[in-house]
Amino acid sequence: MLFPGAGSSPATQGQGKDEFDIIRLGRQLKGRIVDHTQNHGQDNRIWSKALYQWRDLYIYLPPGYTRNERYPIMIFLHPFAMDERAFLSVVEYLDEQIACGKLPPMIVAAPDGSIDGEGCLLRPGSFFHQLQRGPV
């Protein structure tokens, strides 16, 4: 599901607060967010062969994105005890910096790095850190 800065404008009646917030956020961006999550009333998660489970992921596409161009990719790794939704608090700033030319146009992927794919505030953990350290 796309949440573009311009384009489709889904009705917000009957939608949950989170879904309304992502639609509002999408309207403010010059780029757009592709929602591969189950956070906003619809299950759009992607299957991870490596983890053998469904995972949430947001993808940010810069203003003027076209499939025919090549873009650098940034992976947004959320902080410990959080999930992919942490990206939503920084995407406006990122979008603004790209739109004004302070950052180059780029694709940003924000995966859920919680241990089990569930919210992890009460059970902190992340697969973004090394579980074992090798010899130093």
Write the layout of secondary structure elements.
Layout (H helix, E strand, L loop, with lengths): L1 E3 L12 H12 L3 E5 L9 E3 L4 E3 L1 E5 L11 E3 L15 H9 L7 E5 L25
Parallel strand pairs: 6-7
Antiparallel strand pairs: 1-2, 2-5, 3-4, 5-7
Question: What are the main properties of this structure?
Answer:
7 strands, five-stranded mixed sheet, 2 helices, disordered C terminus, two-stranded antiparallel ribbon, alpha+beta, 136 residues, Rossmann fold, disordered N terminus
Largest sheet: 5 strands, mixed
Termini distance?
45 Å
SSE arrangement, N to C: EHEEEEEHE
CATH topology: Rossmann fold
If strands are numbered along the chain, what order do they take across the biggest sheet? 1-2-5-7-6
Number of self-contained structural domains: 1
Mean pLDDT: 75
The CATH homologous superfamily: Alpha/Beta hydrolase fold, catalytic domain
Contiguous helical run count: 2
Give the beta-strand count.
7
* Shape by Cα distribution: globular
Share of helical residues = 10-25%
Known CATH architecture: 3-Layer(aba) Sandwich
Catalogue the unreliable spans. Answer: 1-17, 129-134
CATH class: Alpha Beta
